[in-house]
Design brief:
This protein is an alpha+beta fold and about 650 residues long. The protein is about 35% helix and about 25% strand.
């Protein structure tokens, strides 16, 4: 980039908006005329009485731009000599074109800011100002050069192959279900219900979380590469980031800056941050692939994406931080958030989508105190009208956007139905971020909400096969032929009890995941319960395979407790498990209830809690074998 040209443009930026825009438009017109007719002398001459020159004279830096690219003064005009190189002119034209493209995608908010000036309540004015800011920022995603840069980073071919594998698996399940005439959820669907775009989105989300972007609680120390803790926040006037977090090294006390970047182009290179950065880049990637995507801001401090599903004719919730799709009630029911305002922003419109994410309308309305409902509705309508005017929509596009918005408004009128736990859609707490960070935000509790779960092993016949994947965080019950009979999402939703703050730890730097006790606990314990409800069956044999990782002085011990009748005075025996990698026993024969328990303890130093890791596996692992439980049953009479 030519520094002289950029300096002239910087000077031009210091003018008032109207004068600057007029001058930039005039300069761009001059550049484009010359580049379109490089050998035509009439386009290389600008007369002093031309209206274009009048616009340039009114703005500081404009005439400097002309002289910098090679124009000279003649008797009644300014002339670009034939022998002057056009390299600087091309640079100026390129810079002005980019600015012009950006301006076309930004709402003219003069009238709206005038409206804000009439609002006397500071909180209300601040809230509506943020809405304007977010509405302008999403237009960054419409930059074709930025979209092209984003597309080049996506392994589209690999994701398409993964999508086809997923489709073939669905087709296989459907055929099996049809042959067996099973009355389950999968048998209700046909191949025509499979949507490639929606399935590709699932693969994109999974790749983004586990292979592209990195979560950062605190940056590493730049001096000793030690662990840092949050220290303070400094506001910034830099357009690329709004604030800078200062973190302090716990070892050498070096202060480390962590800018919270909002520039998606820069984040394509950095590829790290927290939910704001994650959703910012993921929304850009979706837009670059042709999805209609929008950025969703939750006033209680979270950001995610929504994608319009052509197949479903509705907006689909996508949380790239959690790799969760279409689970809008997760924040209220799993994270225990006290929601108030949730606003979605796209190139087409801004929409209050709060009611998609809550079943507690009464509670939410009590917390919506930043702005009157009437003012908010009027403000959103004003923004949308200006956006549609500035985008120069075709009649077809305008009708499409209006129809889509009406469909969404009808959807938002209805209270979302609670998802059925029987099909595995059970809500879980937040998984991204350190345990202490999530606990401080109130998005996780020290005891899991999914405890007291019991696996009824007799409902699947005489053989029970349970597989748990720590990477996918899913339990599966399989039959002898490897067909899935049931599944439960979220490790805590399949356990019977938890002590010591057990949580799922994701190490993005090492690309590993495991269960661990919380840092403040010297011991953690997790149990699974297996019951036989069929009065004609009892346990015959029990087999366990589990992956663990312990470091010096760390310890993980296992035991199985067997109950031999189902009364309150049931006799029980406890059997220690010496080898969890491959444990088999027939000593539980005749029992009707089993409780399998893993106890995590030991370790040294500040990271003692990490020295006993349950189910540790690579995030890139495809195996569903973190935990395998096989239980053979027999007739009670035999």
């Amino acid at each position: 980039m030519d520094r002289d040209v950029q300096q002239c443009l910087d000077l031009l930026n210091e003018n008032k908006d109207r004068e600057r825009d007029d001058a930039e438009s005039a300069l761009l017109n001059v550049c484009q005329n010359i580049l379109s007719h490089p050998n035509d002398k009439q386009y290389r001459e600008v007369y002093l009485d031309d209206p274009i020159v009048q616009k340039l004279l009114c703005a500081a830096g404009a005439m400097e731009c002309l002289f910098n690219i090679g124009f000279i003064e003649a008797e009644n005009s300014l002339v670009l000599p034939q022998e002057v190189s056009l390299s600087k002119l091309r640079t100026l034209q390129s810079l002005l074109s980019k600015k012009s493209s950006t301006k076309r995608n930004v709402v003219d908010t003069t009238a709206l800011y005038d409206l804000l000036s009439q609002i006397s309540v500071p909180n209300e004015r601040e809230f509506l100002t943020k809405i304007i800011h977010h509405f302008q920022c999403v237009m960054q995603y419409e930059n074709p050069n930025l979209q092209e840069k984003a597309r080049k980073l996506i392994p589209i071919a690999n994701l398409e192959i993964a999508t086809m594998k997923r489709i073939r698996e669905l087709q296989k399940r459907m055929k099996i279900s049809k042959v067996n005439q099973e009355k389950n959820a999968e048998s209700q669907y046909t191949e025509s219900d499979i949507d490639t775009m929606d399935l590709f989105l699932m693969e994109l989300s999974h790749w983004f979380k586990y292979k592209f972007f990195t979560w950062v609680d605190s940056p590493r120390c730049t001096a000793c590469f030690g662990t840092c803790e949050h220290y303070m926040v400094v506001l910034s006037n830099d357009p690329k980031y709004t604030q800078v977090e200062i973190h302090r090294c716990t070892s050498c006390e070096t202060l480390v800056e962590f800018p919270r970047y909002t520039d998606p182009e820069l984040l394509l290179t950095l590829r790290r941050g927290r939910c704001g950065e994650w959703a910012n880049v993921f929304t850009l990637l979706c837009q670059s692939l042709g999805y209609d995507a929008r950025l969703v801001y939750d006033q209680t401090d979270h950001v995610w994406t929504e994608v319009w599903s052509i197949r479903e004719n509705r907006w689909i919730h996508v949380d790239p931080c959690e790799d969760i799709i279409d689970r809008p009630l997760m924040y209220e029911k799993g994270w225990k958030k006290q929601l108030s305002y949730i606003i979605a922003y796209s190139k087409d419109e801004v929409q209050d989508v709060t009611w998609r994410y809550t079943r507690d309308q009464v509670g939410v309305m009590k917390r919506r105190k930043l702005c009157s409902e009437e003012t908010l509705l009027h403000f959103i309508e004003s923004l949308n009208k200006q956006r549609q005017l500035s985008n120069n929509y075709s009649a077809a596009r305008r009708q499409y956007v209006i129809k889509r918005r009406l469909m969404e408004l009808v959807e938002l009128i209805h209270i979302p139905e609670e998802q059925n736990s029987d099909d595995g859609k059970i809500y879980q707490g937040r998984t991204t971020g350190s345990f202490a960070w999530r606990l401080a935000r109130g998005e996780i509790s020290q005891t899991s909400s999914g405890t007291n779960y019991s696996w009824d092993i007799s409902k699947y016949g005489e053989m029970f096969h349970l597989y748990y994947s720590i990477v996918k965080d899913v339990y599966k019950v399989m039959d002898n032929d490897g067909k899935k009979l049931a599944y439960v999402s979220g490790w805590q939703n399949g356990v019977n009890s938890v002590q010591g703050g057990i949580f799922r730890k994701l190490e993005y730097d090492w690309k590993m995941v495991y269960l661990s006790r919380s840092p403040e606990n010297i011991r953690g314990q997790v149990s699974w319960k297996f019951i036989v409800t069929n009065p004609n069956l009892c346990v015959s044999t029990f087999n366990l395979q589990a992956i663990i990782k312990v470091y010096p002085s760390g310890s993980i011990s296992w035991q199985i407790e067997a109950f031999f009748d189902d009364t309150n005075q049931s006799k029980s025996l406890v059997f220690p498990i010496d080898d969890c990698a491959n444990y088999h026993t027939d000593q539980l024969k005749g029992s009707v209830k089993l409780i399998l328990t893993a106890t995590l303890s030991g370790g040294q130093g500040d990271c003692a809690w990490q020295h006993a890791q349950l189910f540790r596996q690579s995030l890139e692992s495809e195996e569903d074998k973190s935990l395998i439980v096989n239980i053979q049953m027999k007739s009670r009479k035999s």
